[in-house]
Write a structure and sequence with these properties.
Helix content: 25-40%
Largest sheet: 6 strands, parallel
Domain NADPH-dependent FMN reductase-like: 4-147
Protein name: NAD(P)H-dependent oxidoreductase
Order of helices and strands: EHEHEHEHEEEEH
CATH topology: Rossmann fold
GO molecular function: FMN binding; oxidoreductase activity
Strand content: 15-25%
CATH architecture: 3-Layer(aba) Sandwich
Distance between the termini: 21 Å
CATH superfamily: Flavodoxin domain
Family: Belongs to the azoreductase type 2 family.
Structural class: alpha/beta
InterPro entries: Flavoprotein-like_sf (IPR029039), FMN_Rdtase-like_dom (IPR005025), NAD(P)H-dep_reductase (IPR050712)
Length: 188
């Protein structure tokens, strides 16, 4: 049975490098179904709005995540940390506390940046937030893409650097195995 993977991009920028990386994932591992989970229309988190199913955009966002076998977050680093729009999206997915869609959800984290150090600090914060939501973040495997502007084709909006494509393919394949491990853990 094919796995259903949700891809969340932590940038709203039209020509986002991270969106270009996300666009490449389905062609590298074509044994799964992929769905892009938009965070663009989510309101700022406000507990006053978080009752029942929440606003329509939040309800739809949560439903999409709920239907996935796992999520991959592809995010830049802003000011040495997690982008505000992504943190907001993760906050909406973390409630209601006992039935949140991220509880026990397998998660992977990828990041791309024009800089030389990758998205190390952002990914640490994303992982910390996912840990707090009781998500199962893939351990040990990290996917930092530095100097991304030299590794993409802005016309096709995809990753073209062969070495990075191989690393990304291996990361996504390992994530598929991680989903199987988490499903086994959740049954125990």
């Amino acid at each position: 049975m094919s796995k259903r993977i949700g891809i969340i991009v932590g940038s709203l920028r039209e020509n986002s490098f991270n969106q270009m990386i996300a666009n490449t994932i389905p062609e590298l591992v074509d044994t799964a179904e992929y769905e892009y989970v938009s965070i663009a229309n989510l309101p700022l988190y406000n507990a006053d709005l978080d009752h029942g199913d929440g606003p329509d955009s939040v309800r739809h966002y949560r439903e999409v995540i709920q239907k996935t076998d796992g999520i991959i977050i592809v995010s830049p680093e802003y000011n040495s940390g997690i982008p505000g729009v992504l943190k907001n999206a993760l906050d909406w997915a973390s409630t209601p506390t006992k039935t949140a869609v991220l509880i026990h959800k397998p998660a992977g984290v990828i990041g791309a940046t024009p800089g030389a150090k990758g998205t190390i600090l952002s990914q640490q914060q994303i992982r910390q937030t996912l840990d707090a939501t009781l998500s199962h973040v893939m351990p040990a495997q990290k996917m930092y893409i530095s100097q991304v502007m030299d590794k993409i084709d802005s016309n096709t909006r995809k990753l073209t650097d062969e070495t990075t494509r191989k690393y990304l393919q291996r990361y996504v394949q390992q994530f598929m195995q991680w989903i199987d491990q988490v499903q086994w853990l959740n049954k125990q």
